[in-house]
Every structure is written in structure tokens, then in C-alpha cells.
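User: Some background: our group keeps a shared notebook of sequences we're curious about, and every so often someone picks one and asks for a predicted structure to add to the entry. Today it's my turn. The entry only has the sequence so far, pasted here. Could you supply the structure so I can complete it?
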Amino acid sequence: MEQQLTPAALTPNSNNDVVNTELDRSLSAYDYELPTELIAQNPAIPRDSSRLLVVNSRSIHHIFHDLPHLLKEGDLLVMNNTSVIPARLYGRKATGAEIEVLLLEERQYNCWLALVKPGKRFKVGSKIIFEPRGAFKQGSKGAGGDEKVNSSLSLTATVLETDPATGGRLLQFDVPGGVPLVQLLDVFGEVPLPPYITASEATDEQYQTVYAQHPGAIAAPTAGLHFTPELLEKLRDRGINQAFITLHVGVGTFRPVEVEDVTTHQMHEEWIEVPAATVEQIRATKAAGGRVIAVGTTAVRSLEGAAQSGELQPFCGKTNLFIYPGYQWRVVDGLITNFHLPRSSLLMLVSALIGRERLLNIYQEAIAARYRFYSFGDAMLILP
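Assistant: Of course. Here's the predicted structure to add to the notebook entry:
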């Protein structure tokens, strides 16, 4: 019989004093100006040499490799072990017009929901022809673990229907030999970097966490990019434990909020798994007086999404949980996170933890100190 967290173990923590004011519900209240040169184009090398702004009763500047000395023995880090797939494909219509496709999620076998650009005139029945962009190396394996196939193969897709929730298209792929499309993505696709990264020299490996295991994300859980195998070992040596969830980062994470009253924003669903082993680790951590520190907003959404019944339970399915100021926290005590875009749902989530006004003041402090922002940028450690 699986052990579950009891309601007592999920007593609302000290972060629940962040109230929702009328201003907190206004999209324009989450705006700030960022100098373009502070948008990181490349990751820090080594990964844990990035800067770390520690937020507790005050803000203190550190380097990420200081993390083992900033946490306590018995704390639990919860990390997202999703892996980014080569989800961006380039093709053409029969007329020769160029098409860009960003895969979002597989709905049925080789039938994917995707964003298509340009998409307004891309109607049901339209076909896309894809050409290989890379070549398989002899004896190497595809994303699904099977031998990679001949790079001279062609790939086509047909638009089945439109998706009002995302503005995307449902594409049925005609895959040579009927193999899963994911096995061909190394040939036909590329790892999609965010649009604000325009001059990067990063490798695909640098846009994956060192603990990535389960392919399915179209963007990296970027708070985890700062960890190295050596840093993870140092954390374990100091009695700081590690647990994992899986959230395949999709359009729900990065789609902008477009309504002025943020309480009416509808998050797109994303697939998550919170295994029983992680629930048990959280239960043991809280029972012993330790703190649950989520690594990234995706870990937050997974844990809190799996606790919406009032207590944390093992969960495998989809969540559209939207967290903004006034949210009543059930599981998470602290957070490691990067610096997020203005007006984003991620900025609102972090505001729910420490308050919108305080967070924006911290962002101004970071800008003045020339921190690097967004996916390849520096990080914050928010402690209760």
C-alpha cells in the first residue's frame, strides 16, 4: 500500500502570507525593463559557475557552486528529469513555400500537436515535406534507443485539424517504415532554443540537464542547467537529498499571458509524473523538519499540481495549474529558479512565493548587479 502525505504534513508554510491584491491581478503590474545585453546567449562554463542570488530575509550574492553550503542537511531538492527533444523541424509545401514546425506533444501514434509558421493559411489537408538536416553516425542510436536509419529517407506530414487552445495544427506524420517519429528527430529536427537566444554557440548537450532521462520536452527546465555531476555529489555528501518528477515542458510553460486580468488566463495542459518514491521522500523530509526545495517552476507545478486534492499523491497525467499571488502552497517550501520574462506566468508563480513587489525589486537589484537573465542566465535561491 502506497504511503501518502497526511494533511498535517502539508500544513500551509510560511510563504502563504503572500496575498493577492488588485494590482497583483493586473498583467501590466508584472512588467519590467531589461537591457538587451543581459539576455544570456550562452551558458556558463562550467555550469555551476553561474551567479546565484540568495533571497531569504535579505538578498545575498553567491556562485551556484556554493549551494551545498546554503542548504541544510535533511533538505530535499526536487528536480525535473525531462529531456528536450529535437522538436523544431523545417519543411516546405508542395508549392515550395518554407514551413517551420515546432512539435508540442504526441496525441496518437505519429500524430503530433504542433505550432506551424506561417500558420494562418495552413489549412486542413495541407501537406509538408521535410528533408534531413543531419546525418546518423554509423552504429549510433536514435532517441528511442534503436539503430539510426538512413539519412536519405523522406518525411511528410498532413494537417488533420486545427487546435483552438494553442493555435496549432494536428499533424499526421507519414514515417518511413512506420517507426516512431521520435526516432527520426535527430535527422529531421533540431533542439529548439527560445526566440530571445539569437547568437548562441551552445551545443544541444548544454541545453539538457545532466540528469535528463525522459524525452518529451520542447524546452529545458532551465533551473536545472546549473548542476554538474560533481555538485550533485557534494550535495549528497552533505546530506541534502534529491528526488525527481517529470514534466515535459510545453507551450503551457512559455506561452505568454495575454489577458489584463491574469486570473482569467488559461494555462495549457502539460504532462507530469510525480512518482510514489518522490512522495515518500517528501513525506519523510517534512516529518524530519527538512525543507522541500523545488528546482525550477516546472517542479513546482508538478508537486503542487499533484496536491490539488489537499494532500500530495503519486500522479501521472496532465495539469493546467496556474499559480499567482494568493495561491495557497501545499508542498513547496523554497525554490531555485532563473530570472523570467516580463508578464510571464513564471514570473507570477515566483511572485506567489515571495510577493510581486518584492520580486520586482529583487529583479532591479539583479539588473543593477549585471546578472544574466533567462534560459542560459544566472539563478535565484528563494528560501522560506
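Suggested note for the entry: The first strand starts at residue 51 and ends at 55. Confidence is low (pLDDT under 50) at residues 1-14, 135-149.
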